[in-house]
């Protein structure tokens, strides 16, 4: 029992002193916002004394009408879009999990079922299990116009991936190795399937150390830190390599940028903006929204139980 309590204290201390990681997908709910914050978000609306989530009917333009809403008859209604609601091939191609067939939009079945008017539309087709497609060539179906055979479309087929290790020169080292990895030439004179998941993955790949997330340290590619930021204007947050999260930074009295361990340096104007809406201004302080805080605590409790 004492061991569990000790572990819990260590974890809670670590939680209190840890870097602030901002999850861009964990935005506060609209009712958490004060008016100035509420006005910044397209899906929130201010109603006299509180911030509310907009209803579908509150959207007056088609470009804002999405998610569980659909634009019908010149207005936004509460009706989530499905494949069959896509009116043409272009909109169908841009809607995940759908494909254009027999002049209508249907749920994705298999690559070979689809013939598209533009080759690149094969590439955006994707099944629920991650199946990817590519254009096979001109469709066997043709249209005759002024005695000339005109291609009606491009037949799609399953995406063919390459074995990067078969390429022996830098010039030939190219192509998709998997749905997320591409062939890249390494400084050891070999071709590899490359995917940037961590900065160290780019060790030896001269052009792949992305300066947005990483920095070069000799032949190594390492993480950037807040201390690498040299101006106060940019010392807000540092994106992590998946671009879904950021580390909160803080400009100090010594005119240096450091990693923040809390959000007390943020004010009413910067609190919501810098944290991508995951913090809000309440009782004159910048605080993480309750739902996000509870989720973080639960994660640590689960960790302790597993230990």
UniProtKB/TrEMBL annotation:
Signal peptide: 1-18
Keyword terms: Signal
Top-level taxon: Eukaryota
Keyword Signal: yes
Name of the protein this chain belongs to: Uncharacterized protein
Organism name: Paramecium primaurelia
């Amino acid at each position: 029992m004492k061991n569990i309590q000790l572990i819990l204290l260590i974890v809670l201390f670590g939680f209190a002193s840890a870097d602030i990681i901002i999850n861009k997908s964990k935005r506060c709910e609209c009712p958490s916002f004060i008016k100035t914050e509420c006005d910044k978000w397209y899906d929130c609306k201010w109603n006299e004394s509180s911030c509310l989530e907009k209803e579908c009917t509150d959207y007056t333009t088609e470009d804002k009408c999405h998610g569980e809403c659909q634009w019908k008859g010149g207005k936004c209604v509460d009706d989530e879009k499905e494949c069959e609601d896509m009116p043409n091939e272009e909109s169908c191609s841009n809607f995940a999990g759908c494909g254009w067939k027999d002049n209508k939009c249907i749920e994705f079945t298999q690559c070979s079922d689809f013939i598209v008017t533009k080759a690149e539309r094969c590439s955006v087709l994707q099944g629920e299990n991650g199946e990817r497609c590519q254009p096979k060539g001109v469709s066997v179906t043709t249209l005759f116009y002024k005695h000339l055979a005109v291609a009606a479309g491009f037949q799609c087929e399953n995406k063919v991936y390459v074995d990067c290790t078969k390429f022996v020169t830098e010039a030939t080292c190219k192509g998709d190795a998997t749905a997320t990895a591409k062939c890249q030439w390494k400084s050891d004179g070999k071709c590899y399937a490359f995917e940037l998941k961590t900065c160290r993955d780019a060790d030896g790949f001269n052009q792949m150390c992305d300066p947005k997330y990483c920095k070069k340290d000799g032949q190594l590619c390492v993480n950037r830190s807040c201390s690498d930021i040299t101006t106060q204007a940019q010392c807000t947050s540092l994106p992590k390599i998946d671009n879904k999260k950021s580390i909160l930074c803080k400009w100090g009295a010594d005119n240096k940028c450091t990693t923040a361990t809390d959000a007390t340096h943020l004010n009413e104007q910067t609190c919501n903006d810098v944290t991508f809406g995951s913090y809000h201004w309440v009782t004159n302080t910048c605080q993480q929204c309750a739902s996000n805080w509870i989720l973080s605590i639960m994660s640590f409790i689960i960790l302790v139980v597993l230990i």
